[in-house]
Amino acid sequence: MANLFGATRRSSPIVGLAVLLGTELLGCGGGSSQKQPPVGTGGANQPSTGGQNASGGTTSAGGTTASGGVAASGGITPSGGITTSGGAGGSGGVTGAGGTTRSGGASARGGATSAGGNTSSGGTTSSGGATSAGGGTPTPDASVSDKFVVAMVQSTKADAADLSTDDVKTLVEDAVQQAGGLDFIKAGQTVVLKPNLVTAYTDHYRMSPADKTVNGIATDWRVVKAVADLVRTIVGSSGKILVMEGSTMSTTTAFTNLGYTKTNISAVDEFIALEGTSCSDRTTTALVQKPGKSGTQYWVNKRYFEADIVISMPTMKTHSSAGITGGVKNLGMGTTPVGQFSGTGAATGDCTRSKVAGTNSIDHSTPETLGSFIRDYYSIRPADFVVMDGLQGIEHGPSPAFDLKPGDAGYWDYASSKMNMRLILAGKNAVAVDTVEALVMKCDPKKVPHLTKLEADGLGTTDISRITVLGKQISEVAKPFACQLADICPGT
Question: Is 18 among the domain residues?
Fold first, then answer.
C-alpha cells in the first residue's frame, strides 16, 4: 500500500467496508462508539476549498513546478477517471507552460495583495472592519483593494427553491464583481473549478436522491455554470476549464446525479473524478508528491496542482468533524486522491477518507487533528478565488445524514436542516470568506482549527475587523446553524 507521505509501498490487510466508512460520515469528533454506516454510504469528506490567498504564493510559487504544463499533460487523465480528452487537458498543460503566465498569475491573483503580509496586516484593513461590522454597504475603490474583501449578495426572492438559472447567474456575477472580479485570470490558462459534491443523496442509506439544485448539500451546478461562463470569456478557446471533485461516493455518479453534465455546463472542457478509476485506485501515475506547511510530503493530483488557477466552490454548511465547511476544507480534504487517503481495500463506491486503524486515512478524531491535516494539505495549493454556494445552506452538515443526534439516536432530518439563505459569497482569500461564512452561521471562526492554523501561517485572517464585507452585511443575514461541535456552532 502506498504510504500517505511517500511512494513506499507495503502490503496491508483488506478492511471491511463497514469499518472503512468510519468517523467521516458519523459526525463531529466521531469516535469508535458511533454507528458505522452501511456499505456505499457517503462520508463527511471534503468540503473545504481554499481561498485565493496567493499568499499561498509560496505554493503558487511552487507554481513554478505547476507551470510545468508539460507535466500537466501528465495529468494523465487516469486521475480524471472520467476524462476522455486527457490529451486536450494536457495540451491545456501547454497553457501551464504558460506557467510563466501563472507566475504572472501571481500578480494577477493579487499575489502582491495577499502575499504581501503587510497587505493583510495593514491596519487599513482593520479600519475596513468597521464597515463589515456596520450596516452600510461600502463601494469598492482603491482604498479597499488591498484589504481582505468578501462580497455577499442575497436574492430578494423568499424561497431558495424559486431561484431560476438566470437568478443564480445574476447573484454570482454580482458577488464576483464586488469581490474584485476575475481579471487575474489570463487568456489561454487552465482553470480548475472545485465544487463540493459530498453526496448525491439526502438520507443515510442512499435511498433518497437529492434535488439537482439548491439542495444545500452539494454545490448547485448552476453556480458552477455561472462561474464557468465568466471564466470562458477570459481564457478563450485556447484555455481549459476543468471541474475536479472527489466525492464520498463515485464522483462520476455524483456528477450525473447532480446535473454536472456537458449539456448543463457547456463551458467546461472536462469533468474529472479525483479518485481516478475507482475509489480504491492506489496508482500514482497521475499524482505528484508535494510538501505541506509542515514539510510532510503528500500525494496530490498533478493536473490540479499544475493548474494556473484554482477556484474553490463550496457550500455553506456546518461540519460534524471540523465545525464548518467552506473554501478551505473544500480543497484541504476534497482534493485528496482518495486511494491514498482512505482505508485499505475500499470498495469502488466508498470514497470516504475517515480514520481506520492501520491505514493511511485522515484522522477525524478531533477538530484539532483534522484541522492540522486540512491546513497542511490546503497549503500545498491554496485557492486563488472562492465562490460559495449559500443558496440553501445546511445545518448538521456536511449532510444531516452524516450527523449523529446526541446519544446515537439516529441522524438529523434533512428537510428541517435546510436554512433557505439565498446567498452567494465571493472573495480572493478563502480564510476570510470562511470567516464570514462562520459568522453568518453564528459559529465561532476562532475555534475552527484549520482556519486559525492558516491564519498563523499568514494565509488569511479570522479577524472580522480586518475584513471588508461588501453587499449584504453579516448582521442582516445571520442565522444560527447547529452542529455536533456545539462549542463552534451552538445553533443559537
Answer: no
